[in-house]
User: Which sequence fits this backbone?
């Protein structure tokens, strides 16, 4: 019989991973003077993704037929959604980080952000089990923000907390924890 609920349930041994059990961590560069922004981000990062990657294809035509070979791996940008508190600690840290990379006024980079290792940092997304154990963790290497979204203000937007997105470029990701619950 094709439909067997018992067989399905036997394969879902831990009741399925839950998308709401995660945490984002990252160190801010020293020039962004974040205060406690790194600690606060762990609580304010409302949404994120476990990363993906793409292996390119190199197509070659041979006698009228396309033959495919493996190309290079690429990594799409990573985006998080952040809740904004009235202290703006996390938002200010991202603004200073981006301003250090390229200032608004002079189109220059701060001396403290002169090298990729000074403006890039490592970030992490940790996925937790329902018992609180890390079941999967990813490290984003050489991460830096390349887009900080606007915060929409609206007189009619009652009973809500501001939020914004931050999009990061990074060099690659590494799976740093594969645990069984």
Assistant:
């Amino acid at each position: 019989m094709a439909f067997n609920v018992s067989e399905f349930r036997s394969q879902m041994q831990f009741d399925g991973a839950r998308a709401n059990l995660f945490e984002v961590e990252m160190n801010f560069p020293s020039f962004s003077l974040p205060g406690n922004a790194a600690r606060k981000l762990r609580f304010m990062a409302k949404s994120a993704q476990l990363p993906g990657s793409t292996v390119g294809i190199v197509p070659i035509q041979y006698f009228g037929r396309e033959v495919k070979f493996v190309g290079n791996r690429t990594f799409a940008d990573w985006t998080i959604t952040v809740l904004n508190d009235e202290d703006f600690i996390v938002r200010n840290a991202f603004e200073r980080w981006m301003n250090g990379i390229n200032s608004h006024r002079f189109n220059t980079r701060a001396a403290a952000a002169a090298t990729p290792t000074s403006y890039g940092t490592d970030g992490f997304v940790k996925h937790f089990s329902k018992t609180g154990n890390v079941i999967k963790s990813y490290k984003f290497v050489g991460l830096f923000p390349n887009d900080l979204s606007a915060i929409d203000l609206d007189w009619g937007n009652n009973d809500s907390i501001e939020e914004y997105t931050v999009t990061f470029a990074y060099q690659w990701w590494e799976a740093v924890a594969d645990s069984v619950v």
User: Anything to note?
Assistant: The mean pLDDT is 93. The helical segments are 5-11, 37-44, 89-101, 116-119. The CA atoms of residues 4 and 10 lie 10 Å apart.
